[in-house]
Amino acid sequence: xxxxxxxxxxxxxxxxxxxxxxxxxxxxxxxxxxxxxxxxxxxxxxxxxxxxxxxxxxxxxxxxxxxxxxxxxxxxxxxxxxxxx
Length: 85
Prior knowledge:
Layout: H1 2-12, E1 16-20, E2 24-29, E3 32-37, E4 43-47, E5 50-54, E6 60-63, H2 68-84
């Protein structure tokens, strides 16, 4: 019983990591990896030092970047480039 408990706590407590690539935003949290194409992102909204990224009618993720203004600028630049392709 303690092994599943430690496993659940370890997965939930794993830090979130994100990376902006040329074509998509990659978000990793625990065992979950999401690759979000920039043209699928419908909304990016700052919320008290966090950033909410909406990429579908019922799909979204909240990130806590170290510098959220730089993150917003980076995603915006990539999204503009992706829409021009």
